[in-house]
Design a protein that fits this description.
747 residues, mainly beta, 54 strands, elongated, disordered N terminus
């Protein structure tokens, strides 16, 4: 097999329909893969072309009814034309010179002189110190050869300009093909419209500004008004812009100043570095959809058209305080007690600024009301919802990253909160500095919620024991950690009914990140930590779940350095064994959830560079099936919050983040076909305070007993499940904590 860098993957729609072509720069050839009609392809056949083939187009250049190919050969000033035989094979290339004036890059085919013979227009790839934007036009002779190239110098303001993209269409409705060229400038980049005169010549008509690096252009009549519109992929700003044609060769302006991703004005987020864009009807609804290939994030962005120049994208909601909120982690809960899940998002804000928690009240259909902001400490980074004062209303505990303070906000039951009470974990508050974490549990088994907060600088975990009335005792208990703590994950990892925790740490002196196990004694104390062996170097997140269906807690560990999610099976004694890994594109976090209603735990992976959420369906044995491509969120996918936001018994996802000045929450609604968990019809899932699950204990014929039960509704609720003998004596406590609505099984 020949090797080389694959630069372009293109689906042809001519005589090669549903066959594939690949351009490979380093091996200086193209490969043709003929389709079998079932989604599979025959072995590829390669054809040598000129040095560094950069782009490929198809057309019937010799008018024999067969699809031909043309490649632009960068740095050798030529095109290679391969005439097709009609059976998927091609003749040796015809070399077409573009002269020393034109170094070909992106091409487009069209009949520019109206002689019914395909011609080619291309942009000049100028790498000189002071590049000047140029286009070239090659008029076809009808036999696969072309006349001498005509050079079009593009006039722009400035000393440096470079044409980097091109498209062809009749933009002024005069019956002649025009050209649109993307031009990179020392200042703001722009689109230049070149008016065709029907003889193969062009005159410069107009221009308008676009985002950074318009590397790809295409056109279509998106709103069906008989005027062609332009779609531009702005690679360096990771977006596409829609420019509505007016029918006279002019187009709508790009976007009002300051709005980087404004869908009302035709600006949509893509993955990182969109390099290619096309228009197609992907869902057969007679409306144009968009597809971009995003180079840096190795992803494809798909936008389904509404038929009016707008596209279906992820719902997003503004949070925080302008100009930059930096939304971080948060919680889902029913803060106004209407049966619908709401969101509370901690917004980091600007350095050393007092931050806010934004509360978005859910409407039960996946949509949310505008935010309400509540002031907390300096640079809040995450929040947890629990009923700290046992009044039946959810409260919030918020970790603040820059003042060593935990903010506790008691809920009023209408979605609002009392002013935050501040609990310092240091006598003289100092900076937590780097990404603290906060979690909640009952460490001393007194029935009250306690708080655990990591302190990165001082190398300890602080425990704030709850009084059960929404207040917490002082002084705090400090548990020393071997390295700088980053994340805490609470659970009963050795099955002794006491709360333990795992601690993810960072070695600031060049060592690899570590994971430690702290065994709880049930009174709020912890044993000497034990190191858990993990293969990764840069551990950025850890989550727990039962991945092999053995009722023992397992681990999913995110390694950003090696682009993997490591799966470690729990042994039931606080130790773990590495099993395998799941590859991911620059993962930043992971959530174990049941997405499709089967008995097994799945994974949701967030990747920041591509603003992408990837789903991995669990097989129940610790392996997973990754569903590609992922789902774009437009905002970074820094943190993910699960919940059934539209009351359809499916777990949805709220994703927080902010890119290029935005501060938003994106909501991904689950559309999988899954069986809902039975409910009594009450969205709150009201249940009696005490109920009995009948089992015979002990059972000499079956000493191993599994106790399954369902919790209706979608809220987290406090559950205590214990085993009693026939004398009413408690034998073992199985559950003592809050559980979300769902199906559970204890053995």
């Amino acid at each position: 097999m020949a090797t080389g860098l694959c630069k372009m993957f293109k689906i042809m729609r001519s005589g090669l329909a549903r066959d594939h072509l690949l351009v490979r720069i380093l091996s200086n050839d193209i490969s043709v893969l003929l389709g079998n009609g079932d989604g599979n392809f025959q072995d590829f056949v390669s054809y040598a072309v000129g040095a560094q083939p950069w782009f490929i187009i198809a057309g019937d250049f010799n008018r024999d009814g067969n699809a031909d190919l043309a490649t632009s050969n960068r740095d050798v000033h030529s095109l290679s034309v391969l005439l097709g035989n009609g059976d998927g094979t091609f003749n040796n290339p015809i070399v077409v010179s573009t002269s020393q004036d034109i170094n070909p890059r992106i091409m487009v085919s069209g009949d520019f002189n109206e002689d019914n013979i395909p011609d080619i227009a291309l942009v000049h790839d100028d790498y000189s110190a002071n590049p000047q934007a140029k286009c070239g036009v090659l008029l076809g002779n009808g036999d696969g050869t072309f006349a001498t190239i005509s050079v079009i110098n593009i006039s722009v303001t400035g000393t440096s300009s470079k044409a980097i993209a091109i498209t062809a269409g009749d933009f002024n409705n005069d019956g002649h093909l025009d050209l649109g060229a993307g031009v990179e400038l020392t200042g703001a980049d722009m689109i230049i419209i070149l008016k065709g005169i029907g003889t193969g010549g062009f005159t410069q008509l107009t221009n308008f500004g676009v985002g950074s690096k318009p590397f790809a252009l295409t056109n279509a009549d998106l709103d069906k008004d008989n005027n062609l519109d332009l779609i531009v992929a702005n690679s360096w700003s990771n977006r596409i812009t829609i420019h509505m044609g007016k029918g006279d060769g002019t187009f709508s302006n790009e976007i009002p100043d300051g709005n980087l991703f404004d869908r009302q004005h035709g600006v949509y987020r893509t993955g990182d570095l969109p390099r290619w864009i096309t228009v197609a009807d992907l869902n057969n609804d007679q409306k144009f959809d968009l597809v971009t290939a995003d180079e840096l994030s190795s992803s494809v962005s798909i936008m389904i058209g509404n038929g009016d120049s707008t596209f279906v994208v992820t719902p997003r909601y503004s949070v925080g305080t302008p100009p930059q909120a930096f939304p971080m982690d948060g919680s889902a809960g029913d803060f106004d007690k209407d049966g619908d899940l709401d969101l509370a998002i901690a917004n980091w804000g600007s350095p050393n600024d007092t931050g806010v928690v934004s509360v978005l009240l859910g409407q039960g259909d996946g949509s949310f009301l505008p935010k309400m902001d509540f002031t907390v400490g300096i640079n809040p980074i995450n929040g947890i919802a629990r009923d700290f004062n046992k009044d039946g209303t959810l409260d919030l505990a918020v970790g603040n990253s820059s003042d060593s303070v935990v903010s506790v906000l008691l809920g009023r039951g209408d979605g609002s909160f009392d002013p935050a009470a501040a609990y310092s974990i240091e006598p003289n508050p100092q900076s937590l500095s780097y990404n603290p974490d906060i979690d909640v549990s009952d460490f001393d088994a007194d029935g009250n919620w306690d708080l655990a907060v990591v302190h990165f600088n001082e190398l300890y975990v602080a425990i704030l024991f709850g009084n059960g009335d929404g207040t917490f005792r002082k002084p705090v208990t400090k548990i020393t950690t071997p390295h700088s703590p980053l994340r805490i994950i609470i659970g009963d990892y050795n099955n002794d009914q006491n709360k333990d925790f795992l601690l993810q740490t960072v070695d600031l002196f060049g060592g690899s990140d570590q994971l430690y196990y702290f065994q709880g004694n049930g009174t709020g104390g912890f044993e000497t930590p034990l190191l858990i062996n993990i293969p990764g170097l840069e551990i950025v997140n850890t989550a727990t779940g039962d991945f092999n269906d053995d009722d023992i807690i397992d681990l999913a560990v995110v390694d950003n350095e090696n682009l993997s999610i490591y799966i470690l099976f729990g042994n039931g004694d606080g130790s773990f064994s590495y099993i395998n890994g799941v590859s991911a594109h620059e993962p930043i976090n992971v959530l174990p959830l049941n997405l499709n209603g089967d008995p097994y735990t799945d994974l949701v992976i967030g990747s920041t560079p591509g603003s992408e959420v990837t789903l991995c369906i669990g097989n129940g044995d610790g392996t997973f099936i990754k569903l590609d491509p992922g789902y774009g969120t437009e905002n970074g996918a820094y943190f993910m919050i699960p919940g059934d936001f539209n009351a359809d018994s499916r777990i949805d996802m709220a994703v927080t983040g902010g890119i290029n000045g935005e501060s938003v929450v994106s909501v991904l609604l689950n559309t999988s076909n899954m069986t809902g968990i039975p409910s009594d019809g009450d969205p709150k899932g009201n249940m009696s305070e005490t109920f009995v699950l009948g089992q015979n204990y002990p059972n000499p014929f079956n000493p191993r007993t599994t106790i399954p039960f369902d919790l209706p509704g979608r809220e987290a609720r406090y559950v205590r499940l214990s085993i009693y003998n026939i004398l009413g004596q408690e034998i073992k406590e199985l559950v003592n904590g809050h559980l979300l609505g769902g199906r559970y099984r204890y053995t």
